[in-house]
Amino acid sequence: MLRKEFRIILLSLLVSFLLTAAKFTAYFLTHSVAILSDALESIINVVAGAFACYSIYLAGKPRDENHPYGHGKVEFFSIGFEGAMIFIAGCLILVKAGQYFTGAHPLEDVMQGVWLIGATMLVNLALGVYLVRVGRSLSSITITGNGQHIMTDVYSSLGLIAALVIIHFTGWTWMDPLVSVIMGALILRKGYQMLRRSISGLMDETDMQVVDKVISILSAHRHETWIDVHNMRVQQYGNNYHIDCHITLPYYMELSQAHEQLKAVEVLVDNGFPGSEVEFFIHADPCIPSCCHYCQLLNCPVRKDAFTGKISWTRENVLPNRKHGE
């Protein structure tokens, strides 16, 4: 049985193929360069959707000896490929629009083009909202990125429809290449954003939203023996997460007790990311006298200093590689 993610992206691919055909039909009816720009971007939807299908298939393969962290990082290649294709499409659109600026060109059957583009916009709106919502629930950057790209297509189609209606009632054909230039610039911007997201993922750039979520989960269920958490690092592989951190525990705690505490941390965070697999590598640090003033284990038999107050866990004290008292 195909994975849910694969079936979703396959649906996106099939819909994008049909909508691309409809947009080229609108272009041949109207000879509008702005509609051609929209159709060229839709070709990118099809190509990127095909690559996304393969990346999701590969990301779903189990870990092996050559890929101990799994194959999930291929999703960053997928979104990078899609971003590069969008960027190229934007450049082609700007070149084509520049050619049309050199001379007037007649438009035909503009309102038929409006109705066709309007129909594709509504279908893309439903598909884009669905992909973004499902992609976030599944923690799939490929599905989410594909949905965001399609939503960009929706906004550009809306602007295109408005321009075509104005052209139809005013005869201002010079607006056609102008709208194409605007669409090309917006597409270039979106392509850059997707390339930036791909590079940051491949370079293991920290996702602060994920860090904040982990800190929030641990803070909400904070145990008195968890004196502090520090040196936290988060990596994402597809919809899986690898988290490293150090936790300071009472130095006299037995190994079996320390293991139970670390296991409790793993279970808490894993439950906080439903639908994802969370792998924890936790290093247990022994407490030192400088920890006593913020240690909440009030009945500690070896306390050196009085408890002066709880230190809230934030990015500022969880990410650095040092105990809070140092």
Automatic annotation (TrEMBL):
<dbReference type="Pfam" id="PF16916">
    <property type="entry name" value="ZT_dimer"/>
</dbReference>
<keyword id="KW-1133">Transmembrane helix</keyword>
<dbReference type="GO" id="GO:0015086">
    <property type="term" value="F:cadmium ion transmembrane transporter activity"/>
</dbReference>
<keyword id="KW-0812">Transmembrane</keyword>
<feature type="transmembrane region" description="Helical">
    <location>
        <begin position="81"/>
        <end position="101"/>
    </location>
</feature>
<protein>
    <submittedName>
        <fullName>Cation transporter</fullName>
    </submittedName>
</protein>
<dbReference type="InterPro" id="IPR058533">
    <property type="entry name" value="Cation_efflux_TM"/>
</dbReference>
<feature type="transmembrane region" description="Helical">
    <location>
        <begin position="113"/>
        <end position="132"/>
    </location>
</feature>
<dbReference type="InterPro" id="IPR027469">
    <property type="entry name" value="Cation_efflux_TMD_sf"/>
</dbReference>
<dbReference type="GO" id="GO:0005886">
    <property type="term" value="C:plasma membrane"/>
</dbReference>
<comment type="similarity">
    <text>Belongs to the cation diffusion facilitator (CDF) transporter (TC 2.A.4) family.</text>
</comment>
<feature type="domain" description="Cation efflux protein cytoplasmic">
    <location>
        <begin position="211"/>
        <end position="287"/>
    </location>
</feature>
<feature type="transmembrane region" description="Helical">
    <location>
        <begin position="153"/>
        <end position="172"/>
    </location>
</feature>
<feature type="domain" description="Cation efflux protein transmembrane">
    <location>
        <begin position="9"/>
        <end position="203"/>
    </location>
</feature>
<dbReference type="InterPro" id="IPR002524">
    <property type="entry name" value="Cation_efflux"/>
</dbReference>
<dbReference type="GO" id="GO:0015341">
    <property type="term" value="F:zinc efflux antiporter activity"/>
</dbReference>
<feature type="transmembrane region" description="Helical">
    <location>
        <begin position="42"/>
        <end position="60"/>
    </location>
</feature>
<dbReference type="InterPro" id="IPR036837">
    <property type="entry name" value="Cation_efflux_CTD_sf"/>
</dbReference>
<dbReference type="InterPro" id="IPR027470">
    <property type="entry name" value="Cation_efflux_CTD"/>
</dbReference>
<dbReference type="GO" id="GO:0006882">
    <property type="term" value="P:intracellular zinc ion homeostasis"/>
</dbReference>
<dbReference type="GO" id="GO:0015093">
    <property type="term" value="F:ferrous iron transmembrane transporter activity"/>
</dbReference>
<keyword id="KW-0813">Transport</keyword>
<dbReference type="InterPro" id="IPR050291">
    <property type="entry name" value="CDF_Transporter"/>
</dbReference>
<dbReference type="Pfam" id="PF01545">
    <property type="entry name" value="Cation_efflux"/>
</dbReference>
<keyword id="KW-0472">Membrane</keyword>
